[in-house]
Design goal:
This protein is an alpha+beta fold. It has helices at 2-20, 335-371, 375-380; strands at 31-36, 43-49, 60-70, 77-81, 85-89, 96-106, 114-115, 119-123, 136-143, 147-153, 163-170, 177-178, 182-185, 188-195, 205-212, 221-225, 231-232, 237-243, 248-254, 265-274, 283-288, 292-296, 303-312.
Amino acid sequence: MDIQWICAVTIILAWFCRASSGHQTSVEPPRNLQIIDPGLLGHLYIEWQPPPSLLTLDQCTIKYKLKYRSTGDADWKVVFTKKLKYGDGFDLSKRTEAKVQTLLEGRCTNESEVKSDWTHATFQVPPKGELESQIRDFHCVYYNWEHLTCTWQLGWLAPPGAHYELYYWYEGLDHAVQCSDYIQTHGRNTGCNLQNLRQAEYIDFNVCVNGSSESTQLRPSYFTFHLQNLVKPSPPEKLSVSISPYEEVHVEWRPPAGGTPPRCLDYEVQLTEHDGDADAPWTAVSTQVETAFTFSQSNRSRVSCVRVRGKTNMFCADKGFWSEWTRECFYVSRKDEKQLFILIAVVLSFLTVIIIFLLAAQRKKRTNGEKNISPTSLYLE
């Protein structure tokens, strides 16, 4: 009887301690998860509400784990937040799906983490127009970190009267803005130039190219990218080449003028040795941050050409485009040209000695002739 009484008291005490500590063994998932399109060209907001049971808890940390992706993405993007709203850029031509769960931790859970079930939601813009009416080959370049140029080709099924327009938005703008400087081909918009975008760097830049036609609907295209990953700098400037007495070739250049920060550039130096052969292969001799490079000639008897180009480095962007090459070349004298120069120098030196000797001899002869003429001979005449 004593043992049974002790076990009963232990169970009652354990239950009482658990109840008095307010231990929470489960938590409800968030409510009313929804994906909202505010009309910002693919920038969507994911919103939810907390479960009702959490409103009475004051001794726990409440967080949410959000996962989201677009159709075709292999991996989910994961965010931990205490907020009830999160925004990001999406391709509106694809279906968006999101799920969120509650995470509870603290005294109410005896310092262990408790997770709720997931709450799911999806969103998709109803498609309009034929898929082949979308623009093709959309391509953007951020030239010299100063102006953005985007180009495209008309959709395969775009009717003759189709008209395309580009709209863009980034955080800081109140609404989507239409391009004001279009590039046209045969009277139709096939590109756009955009200026003054420094405030849009390192954040999502959302673009929509929409179309209109009297005969049929055209399907819009959506794009999200970062400007710094589309930079194509101008070529390096003031390339100079000098050759030391030891036949080392020293190359120097300056960063391009304009908006590209010099600290953001890597350079590639290439060399070719040829005899007027335009198809001669180029050899990369350096990729570096510095604006100077020295190398030795492998064959001093050939004409050589060096060129340099630049690209944004890993400290400023994830990727980018190489600039055009510099157009400077340098020329090293051939061996036969050196021998000709030596021969010419020797001949000129020899001729100089002969001329000096002849002039000296003529002067000496003239001096001797003046001595042979005396006053007596003058009187006899």
